[in-house]
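Continued from yesterday's entry.
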Amino acid sequence: MRRPLAALAAALPLMIAGSAAQAAPAVTDPIGDLIVSLFAGSPPGTPDWNLKATLYHAGAKGVGSLDSLGCKVVAMRTAAVDRNLIPRRTVLFIKETVGLPLPGGGVHDGYWYASDTGGAIKGEKIDLYTGHGAASMAPMRKLNLAKLTVSKVGEFKGCPPAE
């Protein structure tokens, strides 16, 4: 039993790097699903929601620098949700965003913070904040209007962490 687990542990970074390089919304990641299910308490492959994504950025009409909690919006971390579906202060895991480039360098780990709401965000929709200016949306353009696999993985107090 130890040998298969050791092999799995050794191969996991390669599997994550491989799935991040593909980063297509239809890619399945059974190992990632299993890991997320351990934290979320749901069976593997069972997301809490399949939400239609839209993107938003600062500088857009009506978009300020603060979320609905009064916290500073954080590029590639702040998510606007319908609070009747997902409570604000929920930590979300969106597997389709794993491996995307972050503004400060590095790659996205898939974690987002439901700290914003919006008039057009009703029902099974999620609005992902990409940063300042329309150019900030480029790395995520392929996810715009796509159905994303969203799981609740926790809650946060105060404001989301700034990266």
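--- second protein ---
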Amino acid sequence: MSAIPAEDEQSSRAPGVEAAASPLLGLLVRRLDGVLDELHAMSLGALGDGDVARLLDVATAASSRVTSLQCRSAAEADRRRLSDEVGARHTAAWLAHRSRSTRAEAARLTGLATSLEHDRHAPVAEVLAAGRLRVEQAQVIVEAVDALPSRVDAAIREQARDHLLAAAADHDAKALRQLGKRILDVVAPEVGECHEARLLEQEESRAFAGVELTLVDDGHGRCHGRFVVLSHVGAMLKRHLLALANPARHTEAELRDESGEWKPLRRRLGEAFMEYVERYPADHTPQTAGVNATVVVTMTLEQLLGEHATALLDDGTRMTAGQARRLACEAGIIPAVLGTSSQPLDLGRAARLYTKAQRIAMGLRDGGCTARGCETTASGCHAHHDDLWSRGGLTDLARGRLLCPAHHRLAHDSRYVVTVHADNTITFARRQ
């Protein structure tokens, strides 16, 4: 008995129940499902390397061809307003619900489908249907051609489209997007330069309007955040952090995590970001009411000298006294040390910073980190007071030294005894 209902059976279906597939569509879908079933049942382990690569190529091309069918179907559904049958606001909402895809994904597909129906994008639709173009590339080409100025005639648009289609054989969607921004330099140089400038101006204006930064303290010693900045600012920040995270600046122990595994790049960039903020020059911070925008850490003298003590930041959060002692040497904070009657004993943070000339002299004298066995160069080191500020130390060149970030932390860790040797190097020994 045939699985395809008779015509009279289809016409008597209940309201809201879709008709079964037509005989032709049903046959083609069964053939397609059968081929896919056979391919999925095939043991890939039995294939040679060449066949695995070929199968991947075929699957990639088939994905493009299926997407082309999706676009054509979505465009036809939009033309017939099938979304009206279920009261959806538009085809994208109808497709999202029907396909269980996100609204954004459905909107992108229906938008591309509508664009590909236009005569000027017909060649793009043909190449996508043939499997020689990826859907991201098709989207980029359509957007680039549609973004050309209104004064550009149809002939130039066709040249731009055809040039990008040819380039798609050797460039991915990201590279195509860059080519698309300057496509007029190729097909119409006389208008290309001003068009690119206009596009960049619009892009920068949109980007600047969306700049934002959010920071949230989770109450467990961590701060979470996200930001959106202009592309060149992100590139500059990444370049700075990659330089700080450069493995050449760190020992093998610093590059391994608590379990002994190599730290992933995201962890090293996070540590670099902390160093970037902590080492920002206090004399360059902006001022509010004549006071530099620094963080004040408040503690008693006993807490500052104690091995197991905490310090209070001016925003209500806390840190260990050891962390406060380390930051007091280099970072942009103001230690406000209080006596027994809560009277300030010292607020001299800026005066305790080593000057640029002193840092240069330290670099010439020390050559780098003065901890024995450490090879960190001078540019990667902090300036440290041998006589801790908390014990009355002064910012004198003779009583200062260069230490890498890791050894600087150890120098302020009460669990270690620091020994200064005759050659001006230091060693650490864990207290018994």
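Residues 284-352 form one domain. The chain has 18 helices and 13 strands. Will compare against the first tomorrow.
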